[in-house]
Automatic annotation (TrEMBL):
GO molecular function (one): serine-type endopeptidase activity
Protein's organism: Paractinoplanes tereljensis
Record-linked PROSITE patterns: PDZ (PS50106)
SMART domains named among the record's database cross-references: PDZ (SM00228)
Keywords assigned by UniProt, alphabetized: Hydrolase, Membrane, Protease, Transmembrane, Transmembrane helix
Protein's name according to its UniProt entry: Serine protease PepD
Transmembrane spans: 69-93
Pfam families: PDZ_2, Trypsin_2
PDZ domain: residues covered: 320-377
Region (Disordered): 1-27
Gene Ontology biological process terms in this record: proteolysis
InterPro entries: Chloro_Bact_Ser_Proteases, PDZ, PDZ_sf, Peptidase_S1_PA, Peptidase_S1C
Name of encoding gene: pepD
Gene3D superfamilies the UniProt entry points to: 2.30.42.10, 2.40.10.120
Length: 416
């Protein structure tokens, strides 16, 4: 076989002989004529006119079994079906379908709703515990809040909630929708605390906490009826402690607070409702809000709300229940308010027989700290003094001229 580079023609037949039978019909066949040029021609698609040859299958070759493929398909289908059924059941239960009437889903009420199974220490658990003790106070169309503090139906609320109320115009409603008549037991305008009593048996009192034990950053809940939306609960933290506030309507009683500040949403109607800690205990009475609005009717929550510490409110409420009026704690001195003293409360006059006089303070002294709390002006001193019970002994730091001195003052109750 050659590629044609040395091609030569076939030899002529010998004399007396005809054409060779081997070459007569294949003169150009390279496989028979070793002297013919060789080349391979591949036919194009156009040159191919016949059908494509069928593939040759070896009849003796082993055939592949379909059993593994069928087994894999069967297992996959079973797994997909099981997973789909499980997910469908889970979603149905979460969607509330598990309490249907079908026997396969269980009888109604067999499984309590998830909301009823919250842990007691959870937010929902705290709300469930406190809400039955919170009441909505209605006075001639106005709405405030309050909370039950005893088994016999005593309720603490704000004085400004019951202002102008009488036994015929006041009622309360409970979280379950029931209502009851209420009567005024007593009020203390200067502390903004009042006590009413509801005409209902089997009431649930709240648990009272210790407002001296709370700290800035503690979580709290505000309960009440803001803007007439009864049974409302909001949450936040303690933003500040002993925030001194001077409040009251022009021409009316001036109220002083050494308040708990919180960023829980509080609006009109929350007044008198409880501020509750994470243990479900009342630590304050919601009383005052700050607003950018210039009028009280347009005031709204901006994250600045203030509550009377429960230790103070409990003491005043006890005085009202036991004696018909509250004792006001005093230091026995008259202070200047709204003046720039360079920090501190200037004493304009001092009762020599009063607590401040007995401790050695004199008119003109500037009290700079009360119980280690810095004072800016006279409002701070009044508000902080009223936080304490009569008979409490508090350290005082004051400035006389250029000299700083200290003393211990035993606070007293006002004689009025």
């Amino acid at each position: 076989m050659t590629d044609g580079w040395n091609a030569r023609s076939a030899p002529p037949p010998a004399a007396g002989q005809g054409p060779s039978p081997w070459w007569s019909d294949a003169l150009a066949d390279p496989w028979r004529d070793p002297y013919a040029p060789a080349h391979v021609v591949v036919p194009t698609a156009r040159e191919s006119t016949g059908p494509a040859p069928e593939a040759v299958v070896d009849p003796d070759a082993p055939r592949r079994s379909l059993a593994p493929v069928l087994l894999i398909c069967l297992v996959t289908a079973l797994l997909a079906g099981g997973l789909g059924g499980t997910l469908g059941f889970v979603f149905a239960v979460r969607g509330g379908l598990a309490n249907g009437t079908g026997s396969q889903l269980g009888s109604a009420g067999q499984d309590a709703p998830a909301a009823a199974n919250r842990a007691p220490e959870s937010n929902a658990g705290i709300v469930k515990k406190v809400l039955p003790s919170v009441v909505t106070v209605r006075v001639t169309g106005a709405i405030g809040s309050g909370f039950i503090v005893s088994d016999d139906g005593y309720v603490i609320t704000n004085d400004h909630v019951v202002e102008g109320a009488d036994d015929k115009t006041m009622s309360v409603s409970f979280s379950d929708g029931s209502t009851a008549a209420a009567k005024l037991v007593g009020r203390d305008p200067e502390s903004d605390i009042a006590v009413i009593k509801v005409a209902k048996s089997n009431v649930t009192p709240v648990a009272l906490g210790d407002s001296d034990a709370i700290a800035v950053g503690d979580p709290v809940f505000a309960f009440g009826s803001p803007l007439a939306l009864v049974n409302t609960v909001t949450s936040g933290i303690v933003s500040a402690l002993d925030r001194t506030i001077q409040a009251g309507d022009p021409g009316g009683t001036t109220r002083y607070y050494a308040a708990i500040q919180t960023d829980a949403a509080v609006n009109q109607g929350n007044s008198g409702g409880p501020l509750v800690n994470a243990a479900g205990q009342v630590v304050g009475v919601n009383s005052v809000i700050r607003s950018v609005s210039g009028t009280e009717t347009e005031a709204g929550n901006i994250g600045l709300a203030f509550a009377i510490p429960i230790n103070q409110a409990k003491r005043i409420a006890g005085d009202i229940i036991d004696h018909g009026k509250a004792r006001r704690t005093v230091i026995g001195a008259e202070v200047a308010t709204g003046t720039n003293t360079g920090g501190g409360a200037r004493l304009r006059s001092v009762d020599p027989a009063g607590p401040a006089g007995a401790a050695g303070l004199k008119a003109g002294d500037v009290v700079t700290k009360l119980d280690n709390h810095p004072l800016e002006d006279g409002t701070d001193l009044i508000a902080l003094v009223r936080k304490y019970a009569p008979g409490a002994v508090v350290p005082v730091e004051y400035r006389r001229g250029t000299k700083t001195q200290s003393a211990s003052v035993t606070l007293a109750a006002d004689s009025n």
